[in-house]
């Protein structure tokens, strides 16, 4: 018969060893990241010769671009924090799941409300850089963030929620499409008036929204038989994968060259017309699509018809992008900073590579 006392001792030793291992793992984690509660100001010891990594706060991390920005920050080795707004997360299970997936990837939470000025200021004092990815219907909420950053006085770089077309290049764009540019310009001027160091990131057409459906409005997988071509289909468009946008954006935050500048993401191999994109897809699939050409005048006339504000908003963007070529046909100046040129070490995904992943042969 076994000795009960001996079994208890063995169990006790196992528990002690487990606790010791857990403490060792916790100490290792503390050496690698900031402690968000009691020692958020202490940096990991990387060696005397290695530069200090900026502490990055992602606002809107549960959104479309926010998650990519958080992951890019983690990949670059930045202590990465997510602004957890309890009032928003508590009502949306998808947000909670997104927060948890980023938490497992190594991000930390910092709780604060945009409507609680004091808590927001205290939270901002724990980080160096703020990267916003707030949704378009929340853009003006960033004014609260700007006010708190000015009060905190320690933020060395702010990336407002942009990642599309350069708002300062579309002063005459009519509503409702132009409304988003008005909001973004208001945010930009508020940042500049507050003397907060910034970088504006212009990424043009996000692949998931535009390239995935070959530019078909409301479609996010390539069409099987028919494709709509805008105008003659020859206007150049700049297509960029979301992960690449995030990677370039995060690279700017510790780069003095990008302080108070707009960085344009214009990868040379991804500047293609809609016709060229369709031809690439046909080559990959080994079959030809039937083209339906839509004339600009008919598109403009349709914009005058009675329709939902949301539909008119989207159609307005398609008019700018595909009929007028306004992602490429704008003057950005000879001294403009272009991301793939200043960060040649980042291997961006080409349009052809992206489309190949959507092909039946790769499924």
TrEMBL record:
InterPro entries, alphabetized: NAD(P)-bd_dom_sf (IPR036291), NmrA-like (IPR008030), NmrA-type/Isoflavone_red_sf (IPR050608), PCBER-like (IPR045312)
Gene3D superfamilies noted in UniProt: NAD(P)-binding Rossmann-like Domain, UDP-galactose 4-epimerase, domain 1
GO molecular function, one term: pinoresinol reductase activity
A single GO BP: lignan biosynthetic process
Residue runs in coiled coils: none
Short name of any one Pfam family annotated for the protein: NmrA
Matching CDD domains: PCBER_SDR_a
Region (Disordered): 27-49
Keywords for this protein: NADP, Oxidoreductase
Protein family according to the UniProt entry: Belongs to the NmrA-type oxidoreductase family. Isoflavone reductase subfamily.
Name recorded for this polypeptide: NmrA-like domain-containing protein
Organism: Ceratopteris richardii (Triangle waterfern)
């Amino acid at each position: 018969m076994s000795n009960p006392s001996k079994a208890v001792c063995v169990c006790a030793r196992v528990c002690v060893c487990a606790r010791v291992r857990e403490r060792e793992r916790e100490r290792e984690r503390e050496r690698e990241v900031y402690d968000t509660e009691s020692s958020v100001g202490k940096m990991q010891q990387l060696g005397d010769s290695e530069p200090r990594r900026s502490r990055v706060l992602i606002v809107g991390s549960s959104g479309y671009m926010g998650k990519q920005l958080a992951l890019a920050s983690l990949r670059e080795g930045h202590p990465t924090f997510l602004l957890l707004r309890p009032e928003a997360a508590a009502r949306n299970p998808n947000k909670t799941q997104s927060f948890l997936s980023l938490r497992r990837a190594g991000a930390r939470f910092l709780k604060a409300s945009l409507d609680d000025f004091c808590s927001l200021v205290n939270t901002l004092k724990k980080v160096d850089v703020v990267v916003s990815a707030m949704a378009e219907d929340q853009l003006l909420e960033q004014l609260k963030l700007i006010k708190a950053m000015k009060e905190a006085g320690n933020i060395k770089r702010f990336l407002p929620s942009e990642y599309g077309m350069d708002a300062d290049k579309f002063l005459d764009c009519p509503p409702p499409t132009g409304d988003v540019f008005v909001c973004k310009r208001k945010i930009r001027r508020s940042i500049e008036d507050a003397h907060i160091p910034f970088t504006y990131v212009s990424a043009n057409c996000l692949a998931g929204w535009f390239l995935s459906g070959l530019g078909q409005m409301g479609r996010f997988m390539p069409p099987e038989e028919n494709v709509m071509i805008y105008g003659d289909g020859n206007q150049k468009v700049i297509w960029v994968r979301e992960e690449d946008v995030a990677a370039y954006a995060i690279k700017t935050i510790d780069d003095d060259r990008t302080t108070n500048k707009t960085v344009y993401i214009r990868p040379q191999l991804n500047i293609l017309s809609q016709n060229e994109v369709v031809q690439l897809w046909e080559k990959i699939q080994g079959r030809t699509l039937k083209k339906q050409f839509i004339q600009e005048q008919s598109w403009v006339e349709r914009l005058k018809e009675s329709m939902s504000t949301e539909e008119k908003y989207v159609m307005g963007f398609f008019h700018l992008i595909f009929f007028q070529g306004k992602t490429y046909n704008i003057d950005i100046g000879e001294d403009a900073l272009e991301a793939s040129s200043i960060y040649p070490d980042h291997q961006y995904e080409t349009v052809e590579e992206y489309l190949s992943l959507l092909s039946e042969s790769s499924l």
